[in-house]
């Protein structure tokens, strides 16, 4: 092996090993991301198993970091006239609305937004909402402490969509609930004038009630996606190694073995 063939051999060899090193490194990185997500899932599960926080502890906790995903029991008054219906939210793969209502906490000046549950949308008229019940007077609400609902892609600049009818189907009065694509807590606080806590929300748990379903989807951490990407990167590394061995060693030897036979024929 001399001259140009030898130079080409070493160029291909270096390029191959660099490619294998890069793809293997990317595969290991995806595995590390999967491990991080699994640790996060384990932390979420551990938080969910902790004893429920009482209202006094919740009110006294300024930072939400250590409270996320933990059960809590709160007592207060529903502010039903400020209910918001978050559109294009799914439960068990069916599109509908998350119903979010402020809860004025007893014995304090704090209000927290509660993701009370889900209702299915009317596919013929999206503004025709299924009726829900909002109890009057003090209520006890059990749920998980969560971040505000995730934001979906929103076209345009308006945050408020079509005004929603009341539970009995009548047109809404001024200031009553509305259908929205997303809910910005800071903007909602300014809009309503409520002493709203904007860093956290409550995701109500329990069986179906008040016309609402509560089979909340688990956080989409994407662990399986990272494993899938890792498999692809490692598979690419193996493929590059196989092609290198085939074209640099096996194919030339097979060709060399055939050439003498062809000359004898």
Mind explaining what this structure looks like?
This protein is of the alpha+beta class and 265 residues long. It has a domain at 53-204. The chain is built from four helices and seven strands. It has helices spanning 3-48, 55-60, 185-192, 223-264, and strands at 71-78, 84-91, 94-105, 111-120, 138-146, 178-180, 196-204. Strands 1-3-4-7-5 form a five-stranded mixed barrel. A hairpin with a 2-residue loop joins strand 2 (84-91) and strand 3. The longest helix is centred in the N-terminal third of the chain and has 46 residues, at 3-48. It is elongated, with a radius of gyration of 29 Å. It starts with a helix and ends with a helix.
SSE topology sketch:
Elements: H1 3-48, H2 55-60, E1 71-78, E2 84-91, E3 94-105, E4 111-120, E5 138-146, E6 178-180, H3 185-192, E7 196-204, H4 223-264
Parallel strand pairs: 2-6, 4-7
Antiparallel strand pairs: 1-3, 1-5, 2-3, 3-4, 5-7
Helix pairs in contact: 1-4
């Amino acid at each position: 092996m001399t001259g140009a063939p030898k130079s080409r051999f070493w160029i291909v060899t270096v390029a191959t090993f660099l490619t294998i090193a890069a793809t293997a490194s990317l595969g290991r990185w995806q595995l590390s991301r999967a491990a991080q997500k699994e640790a996060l899932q384990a932390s979420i599960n551990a938080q969910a198993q902790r004893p429920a926080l009482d209202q006094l502890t919740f009110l006294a906790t300024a930072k939400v970091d250590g409270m996320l995903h933990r059960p809590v029991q709160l007592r207060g008054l529903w502010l039903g006239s400020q209910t918001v219906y978050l559109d294009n939210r799914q439960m068990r793969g069916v599109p509908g609305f998350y119903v979010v209502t402020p809860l004025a906490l007893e014995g304090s000046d704090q209000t927290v937004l509660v993701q009370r549950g889900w209702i299915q949308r009317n596919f013929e008229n999206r503004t025709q909402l299924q009726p829900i019940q909002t109890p009057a007077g003090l209520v006890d609400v059990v749920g998980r402490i969560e971040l505000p609902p995730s934001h979906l892609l929103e076209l345009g600049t308006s945050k408020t969509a079509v005004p929603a009818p009341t539970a009995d189907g009548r047109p809404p009065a001024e200031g009553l609930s509305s259908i929205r694509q997303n809910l910005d807590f800071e903007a909602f606080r300014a809009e309503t004038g409520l002493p709203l806590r904007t860093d956290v929300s409550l995701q109500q748990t329990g069986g179906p009630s008040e016309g609402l379903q509560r089979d909340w989807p688990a956080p989409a951490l994407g662990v399986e996606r990272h494993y899938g990407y890792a498999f692809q990167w490692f598979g690419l590394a193996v493929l590059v190694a196989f092609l290198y061995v085939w074209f640099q060693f096996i194919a030339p030897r097979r060709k060399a073995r055939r050439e003498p036979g062809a000359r004898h024929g």
